[in-house]
Specification:
The complex is a heterodimer of chains A (about 450) and B (about 280).
Chain A: H1 8-13, H2 16-30, H3 32-35, H4 42-49, H5 51-59, H6 69-98, H7 106-109, E1 114-120, H8 124-137, E2 142-146, E3 151-157, H9 164-181, H10 184-190, E4 198-205, E5 209-215, E6 222-238, E7 244-255, E8 258-259, E9 269-272, E10 277-279, E11 282-301, E12 308-312, E13 317-319, E14 326-335, E15 338-347, E16 354-359, E17 363-368, E18 371-389, H11 393-412, E19 416-424, E20 430-438, H12 442-461
Antiparallel strand pairs in A: 1-20, 2-3, 3-19, 4-5, 4-18, 5-6, 6-7, 7-8, 7-9, 10-11, 11-12, 11-18, 13-14, 14-15, 15-16, 17-18, 19-20
Helix pairs in contact in A: 2-6, 4-5, 6-9, 9-11
Chain B: H1 3-27, H2 30-60, H3 71-93, H4 99-115, H5 133-164, H6 180-213, H7 221-243, H8 248-280
Classes of the chains: A alpha+beta (about 450), B mainly alpha (about 280).
Bound molecules: protoporphyrin IX containing FE.
Protoporphyrin IX containing FE sits at the interface of chains A and B.
């Protein structure tokens, strides 16, 4: 270890005791926010706990504790602790890895925990060659040094696995970094670029588009998207027991009013829960919906291009561009908030008007003197989207991957060394002393070691 | 034969297994120990079939999802992981008394799943948020971890019983427990294994949340308790690696850790939710 005097602040942050303390404090204080509901209006705390307790909670930031200065400071201390502690130890690890293992005193090899002696009848040189060849064939790349009265062979595997722990520690920092980068608060208060990272939401009625959303952190504040999103259609499917099966919004992205081709190669994206859409770094999630008393109608005339999409209310009569045709909704059957059936009046081109019931959202085909028409009328819904821009999420994901990898390396792999000390005997023949060590999972290595040496012996006897 | 009947027989086998292991512990009957192992193996094989059957049944009623999506199914899966992990430990480390401290966890989970009125056993369809492969990965990884932590908790209890016993009587109950050194080492290995899986469980949960709602971490009580559990085990591992803690202190931490797992799983659902609903009503 280094003997250089350490700055006491450095020493404080390099201490593992501090890490244990911080882990304990983080675990203990985190409980508070699970017992006291977070981010509720003050009046609710007053109702639940009384005025003075509620005020105390607010003073201690218990009502939004995971964003409070003291909790974030704890996390900050934790990060500094992790950095300093790792920096303090990494040089040692590098020293261990770079160490000249051949400089070892032969007496120490004779005292290693895992060892085995093998006698050979050949000469020293032959013995060295055969041990070396054997080890190399087994994947142990050897190096050699001639000592006073012996030859030492050395091979190692997995020296790098000593870094496993530091991969884990680094991964935590990467995750914390990603969390900071992706935080709307950081974007606003430190970077002064609220558009760098944000969370918001928006309701878009079917057939309408929006080029802004509402910020979640600052109620009512608009955030410009820089492009527009249109909800073409929103549908809910149900299971037979009435539970919702799918919430689906068909959405398009508009640049300068024109739909653009999205990742799926189409201008329309099926936005479902668990199937978000990311465009220009901004991600849209299906989050909620809202039924309206109005209707969306889509009318198409067979044999012509294009369709007429309109929002209409019950009782309203709609004129269409097709041969004086107009139509309207004259009755409806409703269950709860959801319209089930609609009674349609469809006419105006001279003949007797068609009046019929159709299911909400179902297609009706209407034959008229002026041609054949396809009409869909459905209750108007607005889709509720959660909108997020989180440039840090990839750091978080990479950090998570590093953590799992690092944990695997740190827990299940080890740095293994094999020595073979080869000496000429007084009479003819040589003695090979095999010895080994592993910095972890010694039992596992012992097995591998015995098998290796046994195989060597068997080979020599043949 | 349907899956719930098979789960019923599984519960009985686990109960039998626990009784046999208890007999091994108290009467030192080797035969009871072997019967305990066989009952556990029989139960776990049956449970595997039952899980497959429940999966198949879900397709038959047109819902079609892996049996890992609600309280009932996760409890059953927890019992399965715990038993499987325990059988592995017993076969590998030849320490069968441990069963007396682990199999009761499996019995408790199965029995609670089957008999508690608040646990719905029906195969129910998945609401949109739950229709994600990340959810599957999340439940599987978490529960493998929980299974390991249950075993570690059992080992911790054994350690404390053994360490407390001053009797040198070779017929005492504590004498039939494995040596302290062995228990200590097993506890540690089990925690390491569980910690890997818990980390993977928290990560897959975060990815799922991000896919579904656009937030990988929102400090809701469940998430927070899982990270508290993670802190406790990280503390345990560091205390051991870097400060050389072992023995009683690690045993206590293993028990505390499992208590935290338990709370993450049940307490958050029932206690905290209850607290809030009292508050608001
Ligand atoms: C919750 C966060 C942390 C996790 C998950 C974590 C993880 C780990 C892991 C897996 C090891 C492996 C030990 C081994 O195999 O030898 C380790 C060792 C270690 N950790 Fe952490 N760690 C965390 C926080 C910290 C912090 C904040 C510090 C800062 C002091 C720290 C300091 C150490 C040290 C000094 C070692 C021993 C390295 C050695 O082998 O010499 N850890 N940590």
């Amino acid at each position: 270890m280094t003997t250089k005097k350490k700055n006491p602040v450095w020493a404080f942050f390099a201490s593992v005791k501090l890490a244990l303390f911080l882990l304990f404090i983080l675990a203990a204080t985190s409980i508070i926010g699970t017992v006291i509901e977070q981010n509720k209006p003050f009046s609710q705390y007053v109702r639940e706990y009384g005025q003075s307790t509620a005020e105390l909670f607010q003073k201690l930031h218990f009502t939004d504790m995971y964003n409070s200065w003291w909790f974030l400071s704890l996390l900050g201390l934790f990060a500094i602790n992790l950095i300093v502690c790792s920096l303090e130890r990494i040089p040692n690890v590098i020293r261990v890895i770079k160490k000249d293992n051949l400089r070892i005193d032969p007496d120490r090899i004779a005292k290693m925990g895992i060892r085995k002696t093998v006698h050979l009848s050949c000469s020293l040189d032959e013995a060295v060659t055969s041990v070396r060849k054997f080890l190399e064939k087994k994947g142990w790349k050897t190096s050699m040094r001639v000592k006073k009265d012996s030859v030492l062979l050395f091979a190692q595997k997995g020296a790098w696995t000593r870094f496993g722990v530091y991969i884990v520690h680094l991964s935590i920092l990467v995750i914390l970094f990603g969390a900071v980068i992706g935080s709307p608060t950081f974007a606003k208060k430190i970077l002064h670029k609220p558009k760098f990272a944000f969370k918001g939401s928006i309701m878009i009625p079917e057939s309408r588009a929006t080029d802004y959303i509402y910020s979640l952190s600052e109620r009512g504040k608009k955030i410009d998207l820089g492009f527009a999103v249109r909800c073409n259609l929103f549908t809910i499917e149900y299971y037979s027991n009435g539970m919702p099966k799918t919430y689906l919004s068909k959405v398009s992205v508009l640049e300068n009013g024109k739909p653009v081709v999205l990742k799926n190669g189409s201008t329309e994206w099926n936005l479902e829960v668990n199937k978000p859409l990311t465009y220009r770094g901004i991600t849209f999630y299906q989050a909620s919906y809202q039924p309206y008393p109005d209707f969306l109608s889509i009318l198409r005339k067979k044999g012509t291009e294009g369709q007429e999409t309109k929002i209409i209310s019950g009782g309203q009569q709609i004129k269409t561009p097709f041969a004086n045709i107009s139509f309207g909704i004259i009755n409806q059957k409703v269950r709860g908030e959801a319209v089930q059936q609609l009674k349609i009046w469809f006419g105006g081109d001279g003949a007797q008007p068609s009046v019929f019931w159709i299911g909400n959202g179902q297609k009706a085909i209407i034959k008229r003197p002026s041609g054949e028409y396809e009409l869909i009328v459905k209750q108007l819904y607005a889709t509720g989207l959660q909108v997020t821009k989180d440039p840090g999420v990839w750091f978080v994901y990479i950090g998570c991957g590093m953590m799992l990898l690092g944990l695997y390396v740190a827990f299940f792999l080890s740095h293994r060394k094999i020595y073979a000390l080869i000496r000429a005997d007084k009479d003819a023949g040589t003695t090979v002393l095999f010895a080994g060590s592993a910095h972890k999972n010694k039992l596992g290595f012992e097995k591998i070691f015995s098998r290796l040496v046994k195989e060597f012996e068997d080979k020599q006897q043949k | 034969m349907n899956s719930s009947q098979l789960f019923g027989i599984t519960t009985l086998s686990y109960l039998l297994s626990s009784i046999f292991y208890a007999a091994l512990l108290i009467f030192k009957s080797k035969k009871a120990g072997r019967l305990g192992l066989w009952a556990a193996i029989f139960g776990v094989v049956l449970q595997t079939i039952a899980l497959g059957l429940r999966w198949y049944e879900s397709y038959q009623i047109g819902i079609g999802h892996a049996p890992l999506t609600n309280m009932y199914e996760s409890l059953v899966f927890f019992a399965w992981c715990t038993t499987l992990f325990y059988i592995f430990i017993e076969l590998r480390y030849k320490a069968s008394v441990i069963g007396a401290f682990v199999m009761p966890f499996s019995v408790a989970a199965m029995a609670y799943a089957s008999f508690a009125s608040r646990v719905n056993q029906e195969i129910s369809p998945l609401v949109p948020a739950l229709q994600s492969n990340w959810l599957l990965a999340h439940v599987i990884t978490c529960f493998i971890g929980y299974g390991a932590f249950a075993v570690a908790g059992g080992l911790g209890i054994m350690y404390l019983i053994k360490a407390r016993s001053t009797s040198t009587d070779p017929d005492s109950m504590a004498a039939s427990l494995p040596e302290l050194r062995v228990l200590d080492d097993l506890t540690h290995k089990t925690i390491i294994f569980g910690f890997m899986w818990l980390s993977a469980g928290i990560i897959t949960g975060a990815v799922w949340a991000n896919e579904a709602w656009g937030t990988y971490w929102s400090w809701d009580p469940k998430e927070t308790w899982s990270i508290i559990t993670w802190f406790i085990y990280a503390l345990t591992l560091h205390a051991r690696f870097t400060r050389g803690w072992s023995g009683k202190r690690i045993a206590w931490l293993a028990i505390l850790g499992f208590a935290s797992v338990f709370f993450t799983y049940f307490g958050v659902n029932f206690l905290l939710a209850g607290l809030h609903s009292y508050g608001s009503s």
